[in-house]
Give the backbone structure.
Amino acid sequence: MAYTYDNNNQVFKGTCGAISSCASVLGPLIDLMLWPQTDNAKDYLTPSGLRRRLTGLSAGDEQDNPYFNINKNKVNAKTSRIMVNLGFLVTPLSWGSLKTNLGSDSYTNQNLVLRNPESAAGFSTGGVLDQADVVTRNLDAQTVLNINSQALTRDLSVSGLVGHYISDHKATTDAVVGTQFLDPNFVSINNTGQRFPQPTTEQRRLVSVFGKAVLEYRNYLYLTVTGRNDWTSTMPPGAGSFFYPSVSTSFVFSDAFPAIGRFMTGKLRAAYAEAGKDARPYAFRPALQFKTTSFGGYGYNFWGPNLGLKPEFAKSWEIGAEVSFFNNRLGLDGTVYRKVTQDQIVNDVRGSYGTGFILFNLNGASTRARGLELTVRGTPVVTPNFSWDVEANWASAGEIVTSLPRNIPESYVSDTWLYGNVRNGTAPGQSTMSLTGLFYLRVASDSAGRRGQLLIDPTTGLPVRSSSFIDAGYDRQPDFTIGIANTLRYKRFTLDLLVDIRKGGDVFDATDHFLTTHGVSLQTLDRDQPRVIQGVLRDGKENTAHPTVNTIVVVPSANPAYYTNMSEELFIEKDINWLRLRDVQLSYELPEGFLGSRHASAFIKGTALLLITNYTGLDPIVNGNTAAVGGSGGVGIDFGNFPMPRGVNFGIRMGF
Amino acid sequence: MNKRQLALLVGVVSIAGGCHDFLDVNNNPNGPQSVTANLYLPPMLHWLVTSPQFDGRFVGHYAQEWISTSANFSPAQSWGRMGYDAASDNGGQQWRDVYWSLGQNLVDMNAKATAEQRWDLLGVGLTLKAWGWQVLTDLHGEIIIKEAFDQSRTTFDYDTQDYAYQEVQRLLDSAIVLLRRTDGAVDASYLAKGDHIYNGNRVQWLRFAWGLKALVLNHFSNKSSYQPDSVIAAVDSSFRSNGDDALLAYPATSTDLQDYNFWGRTRNNATLYRQTLFTLNLMNGTQFGGVVDPRMTRMLSPSPDGQYRGLDPNVLGFGALTTAQQPQNFFGYPGTGGLGLPARYIFADRSKIPVMTYAELQFIKAEAALRKGDQATARTAYINGISASIDFVNARNLDAGQTPTQITGTEKTTFLADTNIVPAIVTRSHVMSQKFIALWGWGHNEIWMDMRRYHYTDLDPVSGVEVFRGFAPPTNLFPDNQNKVVQRIRPRYNSEYVWNQAGLAAIGALASDYHTDTLWITKP
């Protein structure tokens, strides 16, 4: 049984669709960068306690003072969670045991978003208070009959289990939004003049039976077979039952061949697994929604019907080996895997509005993932006074889309469309972490060796941007990552070093694009400098053997579209590498009996002390939104994100 | 089988049966799958009136009702130059609402109304259906009709505008038959529960259907099949007075601002817009022999110095105007001011917005009569139109505590008695320019259709005066236009350009100058 309580305050991160009109939704970091350097931003209130303003713009059009934003706006989440697990074990017979686990995971999540009535974001509605209390209760029960290992012959034995699982997950959300605050600073729904409550309930139930059999030959060859059938509440009638098996084997060859086992230990493994997955609740049948337009009434929500929805299946293969030498002082572990997902359920797929709806939940996406992981661990030095342990992990992964439902040209995660016209869009053949956007149009033919050169508008001399979302080869997936953990011990001192290396993968520096379009980036300093953008004119001859080379001179200070209409493409930084000293800790073991403790140590720990990177923004390890977004989310989209905090801690640990 | 085995079997079977019930929890508890027929109506009527206003931001730039002072950005630099916004749904609101807000809701409502013999509700439903195809085809030309609302399709073929116009007339004829019926389950109080435009009054809906039919038939003016008598007859069966104006109120009580007037300061859509010089000149005497229209000071917005000015769309922002000379916003305040303060005309948070008015229909009748050669009918309808428009402006300025004063009876009589406004011989130049004033600010679809029917700058065949007095397309047309004026809006980007490229290719809509292709209806 466990109880946790979590109280989390955040600042606004900010999204910005149309660059020209995003003053109201910026985070404090962007606010700070835009705030005039000649003004003391800390002084954010007038003597009468109101928001101190700099311009004659409407309060909704002037960006917030960063201090005002942090102090008066609020994003808070409180979670109170109690988990109870109850296990029964009966061993009625010599050959097996029966085990039942009953689990209850119940939590309330209280979310609050406050936009102060004086702030840019809250001004037009006289403040906004958004509250959502989510009451979740998840009940699970699992019963497993374990069958102990039974010898079939002298060398061969079998063991296994059969089980049953049932779950009931339910979340009830009481959400309410209030506007038109009476007192500007009193935070309560009771203080709002207009209120709109919107309760929702979501429930999912699942019943499963499963079984597993393990065959063992002479303690060095193992074969495991499993099977599982699920019945879910979330699929259309007839599609709610689905079965998926797995088979895996491992071979401890150092035990099989004692001649090898004398100087090393080694094991090979291989596995094949399938996994089925259901849809989210209420995914296949449209429902009406109360409308807040004049005089209420009902109308369909965004989602159209799909009574043919079926479960999605993933198939994965994995082969691996692990070996160790010199009494385990040097170990190697390698795994290669491949995973194919078919009939993947893609939620919120768009289509022509001719369907009568805007979004559909469809089967049909296929993806293929591959990966390779290698781990080396060693103990190069062991003496009574000094030892050195090191473990390095190298990983490379990637996933591409092989098909999309209904041959739609692009699928994108709308929550990643958080700045300008760049989003995590993908199409068959592309990485699931690719970016699409309104990128520049380029020469398509190879003639005159100009493929890839920018097309230039013959009237303005500026590059022409695509009017639809296109792929231009950007991929946020790194080539590989390496993590190295070192532990050095000298007498009573221990030094731990955790180093993180990444090679490749693109990062979109939206912050820089924002600052450039607003004229506060250093690269706009040469705005009076005449220049000619290299490229060819889009005059109909661009793909012929004799394209017209651009000679139109542009002076950005006279033609601000040079900056304001710059494609975000120029701010996607390719192949970002980093070497990061994630953690360093030096600890000293205090003498035994220190202050009556059984053992005690003092430590000093530094986090994020060193970062070497070719990224020009603040910190490439960013996520523009939260991990809850799904897919690859906002990883590598940097808009107003704070870098990883650098910290130094001192402390003493004692055990009694 | 002994008793113990039997008990076990019963147990297993009941668990299996129970399992089915246990898993039956997937009926969405957050919204019904079907409701009574009249509950579908309020959102559809909201969009009937409000959707054209969303697109009116941009159509109003084409027709030079207004221009945005956000000089370097859309809409001034795109729509203001008769272009469009790339990769944007701007100008696609009516597309969204006809296919989605009406869409399957209207199909379901009409099916229920048919089954329940609610002929009045079904008549309203068919009128809405006709209105949807009508506004869409007038904006976009070719649209999806025959294959619409088929959820198994991934691409949709477009139908011709000729077909769209036939379908609209067929639907209106059916609606007119149904709205005359009083049998079956016709029930004003049932209809009133969802109808906050006419509160269930079947007769007013019948007049509305006739009015829409008059408007549709009048669009054929460039074709040899044009029948002015049919137009006049339809107008005569339609609105009797301003009391029939199809108006929607905005309660302004929702936290998401969805039930606020789209043009109100709170919604913040028109805050940067200012009246154009073209609009001002129609009302300040420039185009009508020096006679200042009494509506000018009640519809348009003065500058801080008290003078009325309009902006030239060929000049960026306010140009050389000093602060005191820059026209104030439509709420009557400089800059972006006016939040929570009394506004003007139809620009208050709670001002009513019409979808069709008596004045509009009278101008349609006047145009048809002129084309027929019936000066007497035309002149009477023209005077009715101006008179009704003045009454409309007065009524709107009382909707929500606005600041402008009422136009007095004397002002109105003096204005109508002036031969610069109402001469002995009324021409199309009088009718169409006065119709523009009456529709300014809300009747964007019809204003733009009128301008395209008259090729923006046609001259009056009698007087040689420009039909839309003083109108000139922007000198610096949008680059994609290739020096042609705009004729249509491209279909909604995030519906068609992303997901229905095959359908677009078949009608040539992938061309970058597709928006300059002339509509079938405006061709001879």
